[in-house]
Amino acid sequence: MKISKAGARCASLLCGLASICATADGSGLTLAEAIDHALARNPELRASAFRLTRAQAEIAQAQLRPAPEIGLELENFAGSGDTRGTDALESTLSFTQVLELGGKRTARVEVAEMASDVAALEQRARELDILAEVTRRFLAAASAAEQLSLAQETERVAQETLTAVSRRVAAARSPLADESRARIAAMRANLDVQQAASVWRTRRYALAASWGEAEPQFNTLRADLFAFENDPGFSALMKRVERNPAFLRFASEIRLRDAQLRLAQTQNRPDLALTLGLRQLQESGDTALVAGIAMPLNSGKRNDASLRMARAELAQAQAEQDAAAVLARTTLFGLYEEMSSARRRAEALRTEALPLARTALEQTQAGYDRGRFAFSELAGARQEMLALQSAAIESAATYHEMRTEIQRLTGEPLNPIEASQP
To answer: Which of 218, 215, 217, 223 is nearest to 146 (CA)?
Structure first.
């Protein structure tokens, strides 16, 4: 599939989120590569290209003038008396051309061009939606991979703890119940690994399906969920919303409806049909020219309903644009607040809560080894640290998810510098 300029632009916009992709060398699928695959092979994008082709063909169709008509008229034959047979036959060969008045053709072409502009914006918006979905699936897969790694690490620690507790029980330094608890914790950790692995497989297949791939050709991802950018403020983001293809569509829709109204207004002026023909007089063998002109009656009144409909559609488009502006501002504010909150949570968990939990775990482990703490306290400290790690992953993933939604809404990367990166 040949990538359109609009598609390339959409890719560059969403690649503004490529900050989550690791820049170090290594194997694994990156977000930029996932976007490239979707641009090249996504079934919906291939289908949308034909809609734009159709809209462009409609412009060429609108430029055509009414086709001329040629006609043959026979009179005075197969009758009675002098008109029996073909003795009195008169035949007229005529040529008719409709002359469009009132600028109908110009208005019709303008409507087709406006419709093509709307189709182009819809295609760009569709590309942004699809690529944003690819980004969401990539983030979901990256989060699942992080959770799987955490579950595997948890299982490893649980097995080591079980081994250490078993030695303490054998040396009569800990009660037998501690070994049972440690064994249960190891079993639960193993089940958590299986669950996390299942989620990772599901999300890996969902990501590959974004470009029509039945069997994923990648086994790992290269991503850093904790790569945060310096995001602009809400006011700066709001100014970008009106440049989004989906939002620009409302402006183009208004222009289209306005063009349709002008086209409807041109219908009030009737067209003229000019006829020029050659008549053959059978009885005398003479020929003569005939000419005629025709125009519809009451064409203005018959067009009143079309005018009312065109005015209503224009007013509706203007109202929808106003409603979309209000909804966009409200949505953007909610997304921005959630993104900022998720970032604060992730940073606080990683830089403040996790170091404290890690220290508490080390102290509890040392106290348990000296017999000062029970196994339940050690297990609780370890569980608390794992819960904080999982929460940090979820918060980081939420940050990037909200950032993806904001980027789709604004139609631009949150960091303009990233748009120029390959």
So the answer is: 223
Query: Reduced to 3 states, what is the DSSP secondary structure of residue 371?
Result: coil
Dump pLDDT digits (tens) for 114-140.
777 777 777 777 777 788 888 889 999
Nearest of 358, 348, 342, 352 to residue 394 by alpha carbon: 342
CA dist 310 and 80 (Å) reads 55
Residues 6 or more apart whose CB falls under 8 angstroms from that of 32 comprise 15, 18, 21
Q: How does strand 272-281 pair with strand 287-294?
A: antiparallel
Contact 81, 233 (CB under 8 A): no
- φ, ψ for residue 372 (rounded to 5)? -90, -20
User: In the chain, how long is the greatest CA-to-CA distance?
Assistant: 136
| pTM, 2 dp | 0.65
Q: Is 290 left (phi over 0), alpha (psi -120 to 50) or beta?
A: beta
- Enter the tokens of residue 362: 């080390």
Residue pair 142/20 in contact (Cβ under 8 Å)? The answer is yes
CA nearest neighbour of 311 among 263, 364, 251: 263
